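Weekly structure sync, notes
Attendees: PL (lead), two postdocs, one rotation student
Agenda item 3: pending single-chain targets
PL asked that the sequence for the first pending target be pasted directly into the notes so everyone works from the same version. It is reproduced below exactly as submitted, 290 residues in total.
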Amino acid sequence: MTAKESSLHFVVSNFDTLPFFYLDSWSDVTVYDQSDNIEVIQQLKDLNDPRIRFEGKTCGHNLLNYLDFILDHYEDLPELVVFTKGNMPGRHCDANWFKNSIHKGQYEFLWDDQSFRDQDGIAYRIAPGRFLERNNSWYVKESPHRYFVSFDDFLDFLFVDYRKIQYVLFSPGACYIVERERIIRNPRSFYQGLRKLIDYSFRPAECFMLERALNLIFDRTYELRDYCSTSEFLYQISILTDQSSVVAQGNKNYMDSILDSFIYKLGILKRKRSEKRNKLHKKENDDKTN
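Predicted structure, written out during the meeting:
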């Protein structure tokens, strides 16, 4: 084991799998088990391994486990964190490729499905570990959604300087090796808000959005909105218009779609006015102090 490997901590979101690949190879492992297979659960319990946490099936899928680990350990995060899944080697990549990526001990996408074939204009495997997908929010029509009806709306809510992108580069399955410094560049309140956005249904559309946004978040590609850095983030989420019945399900007519879009944009305008008002108040208080 290299020096870099000794600083790794594996955060494994597990479902109906016996994650011996991790438990037998590394000591610093936290397994969040969401299994519903009784035999698998019993086998894991029989191990009596304190590294395994039995969560039951959670909202937010594996991303909720990752966010819980960050929130629980924000002040004392390991130097390197591997966010992965119990079935990762064999599904998203080859086991040897996975281990070679771990040896690098640096920020890395953990995905390399060599069976994937490029879909012209839709999705591409552009290099080992690199997946590029057209930004068309296809998953909103296939999953429950509450806060957003597109990836662009989601990113606009998080970032000041976001502009629509045609394609998004990410790691399918949301598996990454991430340095502590990359994680804590974003405040704890930000991760609390992200958790809120996905903690209402099993794998909602917002989960797909966060999966695609993680690289942008860890890389700090864009600047966070001011409220993301404070407890106000949760308040801003609480006043978002419920989008669960918006056209994505395909059961509304054109005028209903226009109305939904207007209501959503009204919510954005209200949020931006609130941001401006808060900045003015902060400036006034700073002037008084000086």
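Discussion points:
- The longest helix spans residues 254-289.
- The radius of gyration is 20 Å.
Action: rotation student to compare against the earlier draft before next sync.
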